Amino acid sequence: MKSLEQSSIQIIKANQAASGAYIASPAFSQYGYSWLRDGMWIAHSMDAVGEHASAAAFHRWVERTILRYEQHINALLGKLDRKEPISDVDLLPTRFTLDGDLGSDVWTDFQLDGYGAWLWGVVQHCRTVDAALWDEMRPAVRLVVRYLDALWMMPNYDCWEEFRDEIHISTLAALYGGLAAVQSFEAALVPDGLIEKIRSYTLENGVSPNGHFIKFLGNANVDASLLWVALPFGLVDIHDPRFLRTVEKIEQDILRLGGGVYRYCADNYFGGGEWLLLTCWLAWVYLRLNRLDEARRLMRWVEEQARPNGEMPEQVSAHTLDPAQYQPWVERWGNPACPLLWSHAMYLIVQTELDTFEK
Predict the structure, then answer these.
(1) pLDDT digit string (tens) for 343-354?
(2) Where are the strands (E) in 208-357, listed by range?
(3) Does the reported pTM lie above 0.90?
C-alpha cells in the first residue's frame, strides 16, 4: 500500500469522533460538523480498505441521529399532508454536530442529496460487509424514505450548498440511487413507482438539446457532480450516450489540461479551484470506461497536490477560474480546507479500485 493511502486511512480514523461521526475537516472554520454526504463517502472508503468497524460506527451514528429527529420529521409530514405552509426550519439539516445536535449558526441547510447518498451507502455496507446490521438500520431507513418521498421534487440547495431555488440533476441522481438501493435490498420500504417517477422526471427535464445532462433545470451548463448520474447512482448506465456526452462536456468545460477538475465553469468559491475529490471521480469514471491511462494521469495529479505530511486539501488555487475572489474568501473563513476527509475518501476509493487493475 502506498504511503498516501496509509496516511489517508490514518487521517480519517484520527478524525472520527467517539460517536462515529466524521468531521468534514478538523482545520477549517466552517467544517467542524459531520455531513451525511461527506460522511457516507468516507465510510465507503473505509469499507474499501477493510476498515469496516469505522464505517459501521458512522452508519450507527446516522441511525441514532435520524431517529432523534423522528418527531420533527413526522411534524413536517403532517404539515404537508394538511397542505399547511412550511419553512426551512421544518426541514432536516444537511449537517450535524459530532454528537448529532443541530448546528447553532446559520447555514444553507436544506439539501436532500446527502440523505439519498446515505441510503445508497448503508445498503452497500449491509450488502457487502454486514447484512445483520440492516435490522438495526431499518427504522432510520424507513423514516428517510418517507422524508424523501414527500420532498424529492422540492427545490433545495445543491451539493455545493448553492442555488436554493433550483432542482439539481445530481441531487435527483442521489435520491434515485439511494431509493433504488433500498428497493433492491428490501422492496417493501419504498413506495411503488417512486424511483421510476424520479428517473422519468430527470430524463425528461435534465438533458440539454445537445444530449448531455445539465447542472439544474433551466441551466444547460455542466457540473462535475453530474458524474454521479451514472457512477455510483446508476440513474443511467455508464455507457449511456447521454452520460458519455456529459463526460465529454465536462472534459471540454471544466477539466484543466494537465490538471484537475473544477466544480462548474462559473465557480468562484475561493476563486474556483480544481477539486481533488472531483478529479478522483472523473478518474473513477475513466476506470469503468477502461480508459486506464487517463485515470492514472488524474490520480497522479491528485497525489501531487498532497502536502508533505500526507494531508489532502479540498481544492488547489494555482489555476483558479476567478482569481479576484480567492482573497475575499480567505479573509472571510481562512485558507481553504486541508485536510478535507472527503478528498482522502475519494482517493482511497478510486486508488483501491485502480490497484485491482494493476495486479
Answers:
(1) 999 999 999 999
(2) 274-275, 315-316
(3) yes
